[in-house]
Specification:
This is Cytochrome c oxidase subunit 3. One of its GO terms (biological process) is aerobic electron transport chain. It is a multi-pass membrane protein. The longest helix has 33 residues. This protein has 2 domains: 32 residues; 154 residues, Four Helix Bundle (Hemerythrin (Met), subunit A) (Up-down Bundle), CATH 1.20.120.80. Helix 3 packs antiparallel against helix 6, helix 3 packs parallel to helix 7 and helix 6 packs antiparallel against helix 7. 79% of the residues lie in helices and 0% in strands. By secondary structure, the chain is mostly helical. It contains 7 helices and no strands.
């Protein structure tokens, strides 16, 4: 199996130039994921304007955004930790904390949905469920990427040039957290 991977060029170390190209390509991909959010935010203003339902739970919205902000801070700390010390146990434990905070944010949103604080039949409700649904879809993808980074950090001895899995997972998770916070601002404040 290893020789097959080597023939395909998949077992090679990333050179600094290739590493920059891979990072640029991935960050470009992440940046393109802003488009669905821009469309959803525009649709919110077309359909509901700046109206916020008085039944919308501002407190649950703040709790969810705060959980994602904490998750973002923890995940971003992993980047610094991976570059400075490379302590795999600390990296794995912090990624797990970031993932658990993300799971709690998802569960808080599900609780908000189940409580029917906002009617899905209103214009505000339609956009609320569409925007928070997009947040959850992206968060699930981000959690899968964090899980991959956690499992990879546990299976192999990561050298600084092999931290790409961790770095990619963190970059995507930071995007997810920032998008979730922006969604909270759009849905509840603007």
């Amino acid at each position: 199996m290893s020789s097959q991977l080597e023939q395909l060029g998949l077992e090679k170390e990333l050179t600094p130039r290739n590493y920059r190209a891979v990072r640029f390509g991935f960050l470009f991909f992440v940046a393109t994921q802003i488009v669905p959010y821009v469309v959803l935010y525009e649709a919110k203003y077309v359909y509901a304007g700046s109206y916020v339902s008085p039944r919308a739970s501002q407190i649950l919205g703040v709790v969810t955004a705060a959980l994602m902000l904490l998750s973002l801070i923890v995940a971003w700390g992993v980047m610094r930790l991976s570059r400075e010390s490379g302590d795999q146990q600390a990296i794995r434990s912090r990624l797990k904390v970031a993932a658990v905070l993300g799971i709690f944010a998802i569960l808080t949103t599900f609780y908000q949905w189940s409580g029917r604080y906002t009617s899905p039949q209103s214009r505000f409700g339609e956009m609320f469920f569409a925007i928070t649904g997009a947040d959850i879809v992206y968060a699930v993808v981000g959690l899968i990427m964090l899980w991959a980074a956690i499992s990879r950090a546990g299976r192999i001895n990561l050298k600084p040039e092999k931290y790409w899995t961790v770095e990619a997972g963190v970059y995507f998770w930071v995007f997810v957290a920032l998008a979730w916070i922006a969604s909270w601002i759009v849905v509840y404040l603007l």
